[in-house]
Amino acid sequence: DIACGVATACLVIDTPKTDLWLDKALNELGKGLGQILADGSYTEGAYYAQFIASRFFQFAFYYQNATGINLHQLDRIRKFSEWLLDIEYSDGSVPMWDDAMPDRYFYLPLMVRNSDYSEYFAEKFYRVCEDYTTPDSRIVDSFFSFDSQIKPVKYSNKTKFYPDGGQFIFQNGTIESLLLAEKEKTFTKHDHIDPLEFTFYAYGKPLLIDSGYGLDGVNDKNRDWFISPEANNIPLVNGFGPDQNPIWGDDNYISISHEFRGDNISIVQANTKYRATELPRMAILPTSNYMIIIDSLASDNLQRFSIPWQGLGELFLLEENIAYWKQDKVNLKI
Fold first, then answer.
1. What is the mean pLDDT of residues 7-21?
2. CA 168 to CA 159: how far, in whole Å?
3. How many CA atoms lie within 13 A of 267 on its CB side?
4. What mean pLDDT is predicted for residues 288-302?
5. Given this model, what pLDDT does residue 131 score?
6. How far apart are CA 232 and CA 190, in angstroms?
7. Rounded to 5 degrees, what are φ and ψ at 119?
8. Which of 10, 15, 45, 100 could disulfide-link to 96, CB 3.0 to 4.6 Å?
């Protein structure tokens, strides 16, 4: 906020210190944009990506007015814009992982003029604009930057893999899911230790979810639980995720051994190790109605394995190994 505000002010004021202030503001802004990886994915998660978008693209509008330079055309910013389209679910929400809240930052109209994807952002904005129920400081900027002549076009969300950020997005019109395999070098202050995290939407309904910040963010009385590995949809060894002790704990390494994305089937296998256990997780999207998750857990020690599924709705046990997860009128058969 402060960096974008100072940089914007420096575009219109002329004092002996303007250049100094602008350099410092752009340096701070660069730290935030530095979380955008080479493939366009954002390391702090989709929630904070929308926050950055709402601030940066506001500044980009004024910067182009002052200099004639369109920051949307920068290669990494173009990839980031495409990632923003890919990571969002059909209802305009985003998968919550790491620190995240269900709030939606107001940035879509800022994209509808200078972005190469203007028509797609326009369609998204028209479709979800009623979900913005509170005033936002970017409303005036959006009013002036928005181009109502842009014809809205619905973006075709498909399965997309972003290996730099360890974000593997599976979408086929019915199923929307995410397999998370973040590399340790991309960890930020908002990260949770959640290797192999998996979230799942079907027919626009959230079924398997990540709790993100929890109910009250950093002030939540259960904050320690929400940031713990055990609060995520990851395999547990003797009831625990990775050992986070900085001296003798687990290394949090992760690797990808299989990766295939096709029109009819898509597959990813991510591998990690914690609690003396090899933990490969394979995600397969073969058809419009099925998603397959395979956990092949192996250890030389006697271990007790469990795979928790955190979600919304009700669980009904049909048989010993068959259950239904129901959210409104959508059923997930497990």
1. 90
2. 8
3. 10
4. 89
5. 63
6. 15
7. -65, -30
8. 100
Structure tokens at 239: 């009831």
Specify the higher pLDDT residue, 196 or 104: 196
Q: Find the helix packing angle between 18-33 and 2-10, rounded to 10°.
A: 140
Residue 208: burial class (beta carbons within 10 Å; 0-12, 13-18, 19+): buried
Please report which helix (H) or strand (E) contains residue 8, including its range: helix 2-10
Residue of 177, 180, 176 whose CA lies nearest to 163 = 180
Distance CA 94, CA 284 (A): 21
Position 119: which residue type? E
- What tokens appear for 28 in the block? 């701070």
Given this model, what pLDDT does residue 220 score? Answer: 81
Q: CA nearest 208: which of 216, 195, 199, 218?
A: 199
Element (H, E) at 179: strand 175-180
Q: Which amino acid is at 48?
A: Y
Residue 332's H or E segment, with its range, is: strand 330-333
Shortest CA distance to 159 belongs to which of 183, 139, 177?
177
Cα–Cα distance measured from residue 18 to residue 20, given in angstroms and rounded to the nearest whole number: 5
Q: Do the beta carbons of residue 256 and residue 270 sit within 8 Å?
A: yes
Quickly tell me which residue has 């493939």 as its tokens: 39
| pLDDT per residue as tens digits for the range 223-272 | 888 888 888 899 999 999 998 888 888 888 899 988 999 888 999 999 99
- Examine the pLDDT at 187 and tell me if it is beyond 70: no
